[in-house]
From TrEMBL, chain A:
Residues 15-252 form the ABC transporter domain. SUPFAM superfamilies: P-loop containing nucleoside triphosphate hydrolases (SSF52540). SMART domains: AAA. Residues 251-272 are annotated as: Disordered. The keyword Ligase does not apply. One of its GO terms (molecular function) is ATP hydrolysis activity. Keywords: ATP-binding, Nucleotide-binding, Transport. Pfam families: ABC_tran. Transmembrane segments: none annotated. Gene3D superfamilies: P-loop containing nucleotide triphosphate hydrolases (3.40.50.300). The keyword ATP-binding applies. This is Organic solvent ABC transporter. It comes from Thalassospira profundimaris.
Automatic annotation (TrEMBL), chain B:
It is a multi-pass membrane protein. Pfam families: BPD_transp_1. Belongs to the binding-protein-dependent transport system permease family. HisMQ subfamily. GO terms for molecular function: transmembrane transporter activity. This is Amino acid ABC transporter permease. GO terms for biological process: amino acid transport. It is found in: Cell inner membrane; Cell membrane. Keywords: Amino-acid transport, Cell membrane, Membrane, Transmembrane, Transmembrane helix, Transport. SUPFAM superfamilies: MetI-like (SSF161098). GO terms for cellular component: ATP-binding cassette (ABC) transporter complex. Gene3D superfamilies: MetI-like.
Amino acid sequence: MTQPASSSPDASAFVAINKLTKKFGQKVAVNEVDLMLAKGETMAIIGPSAAGKSVLMKCLVGIYGADKGTIHLNGDDVTNSNAPTRPDWAEKIGMLFQQNALFDSLSVWENICFRQIELGTLNRKDARDRAIELLGLVGLAPESADLKPSDLSGGMQKRVGIARAISSDPEILLLDNPTAGLDPVLSNHIELMIAKIAEKRGTTVISITNDMHIARTRYQNLTMMYDGKVYWSGKTSEIDDAHNAHLTQMLDGSSQGPITMRTGKREDGVYA
Amino acid sequence: MSKPHHAPGDVRSKSLTDYLNDENVRAVLYQVVAIGLIILTSWYLVSNTLDNLEQQNISTGYSFLDLEASFEISESMIDYSAKSTYATALLVGLLNTIKVAFLGIILCTIIGIIFGVARLSSNWIVRKLATVYVETFRNIPVLLQLFFWYALIPNSFPHPRDALEPLPGVLLTSRGLYLPVPIADTAYTLMGIAAILALVAIYFVKKWAKKRQDATGEPFPMTAAGFGIFFGLVFIAYLLGGAPTEIDMPTLKGFNIRGGYNISPEFLALLIGLTVYTSTYVAEVVRSGIQAVPNGQWEAADSLGIKRSVALRKVILPQSMRVAIPPLTNQYLNLTKNSSLAVAVGYPDLVSVSNTTMNQTGQAIEAISIFMLIYLGLSLLTSLFMNWFNKKMALVER
């Protein structure tokens, strides 16, 4: 079981990140990260602040280029190609940002179908209809379509963000802290909703969270990042109580530094 | 002894020091003293001035406005001759001020936005050129820049005989720019009225479209409809006016150019000088506005596969304008006020005409009071408009 995470990357994995390094000046934000995920599976990325979780996600979606290493999506090398230059993959990945990053200059429906309007894949009328359909899916009334994002509450904004992320029926859904700043009831509701949407469409989901309980109960795989590196990666079902306690301690800072490195590897070679 | 007993503190009458230490009494006292000082000073100055004027045999009052001005003004937007009154002369000056300020505000906004965006370009050359432009023209006093442009135009452009013709009918000479214009016709008045009517109509259609969209959710192609209404109405007015086609072309006659619409070197120098100077400040306002938009907005647009130029136009600039409007108002006010430097290049703006009026009539106080009031009025109008615009654009946070 104990193998260095950097051994042979498997091209059969849907998402395959190999030795990815991203620096900002002298600071190494993501340090030789390996990550594999099969199609249709879900993964939670946990880790304390500044562990490199968001940067990793932004490399995946094409906002940042990499300094070293590769990213393959379904066998395509998408390393260092930003989203506008990889139109097919830009459409196949949807991302929810930590602060939602809704466009305040546009109405809710224009936000949701901004991509479709701008790339001309839908005319404005159809785009609006599509946006209203998506609003229904995330539990918002059609009336909110013509409001501005600033008119909405935090939870409603989060839902709009999710609607935007899934507007192009993506194969990969990236969620940066989907439940940050929401109360426990609403968090649970949002997580359930995401799980339902993803399951129905067979979407591959990678989600950043700070909640060990949510990570264990709602996701099939778990990757823990610490100081830019993958500290632990495996199936959530393999996490026993002792391990859970250790990871939780890492998360809340009561334990410092790696004690044992452990990587779960499945028979088919896909790290999970 | 029939009086009821009081505690010692209650019956003690307040002394003067007690009153002076009372915050409320003090506040009133300070205000009375301040207003008193202002009144005394103004009274002193005004009575002194009146005495001096009387000694010099200068009558006060605004009756001079009805007298014949008896001086020529080199350019005017309305009918004016030396036989017109001083009031008309001042109106000519005011219209000239408004003309240069209005055009200057529009041009400096456009140029400023271009250079503000260029300063953030990822292209090194574009970025550096924009920086050089901004830093150069921002740091040279605007008066010197006006002298520069005014020296440049008559000296760098050819004599009317060898006029440059960059576009057919457009002549560029040391005496300014000549443009072909349609010969005055009632059709153009009709078109002007039609344009105003069209704007009113567009306003109401827009209101109706929003109401309908709120009620039924049906979107309305407002941009297309707006253009249709505007140009449709104007064109109908043009046809109704008999569709005049005669155009007054500027042509060389003798040593000078006759006909067409002349834009004087003075006006050009002032407009270019004010526009260039103010556009550097607008560029900085726009740049800071863009940088004030959270980076996440760029990233979100990026992640959707939207091109940066589209993201800038649809997402970033509209949001940066919110931050930019109040400082932009300052720049517009500055440009309007700086237009009074017209006197340095001989453009007959309000101050220039007022100066001539002052010299001829000796009514310095009245003339100055008129243009100060007008500048105050112009500035307040600009502020009012920009405040309204700001409110309209402001983000209503919940």
